[in-house]
Specification:
mainly alpha; rod-shaped; 51 residues
């Protein structure tokens, strides 16, 4: 999942360089959501994985 967040972040940077503001904003938003989901799942696995 972290790979997808990084991929969308790279797409956002490339789109911003070429001037595609809508695509860059959407890709950055998706990357933020994926990073948040990754962090939540990581914390949950740390809490419940020790049992």
């Amino acid at each position: 999942m972290l790979r997808y967040a990084l991929l969308f972040f790279i797409v956002a940077i490339i789109a911003a360089i070429f001037g595609f503001g809508g695509i860059a904003g959407t890709s950055a938003w998706v990357a933020k959501i994926l990073v948040f989901v990754f962090l939540v799942l990581f914390v949950v696995s740390l809490i419940f994985g020790r049992g």
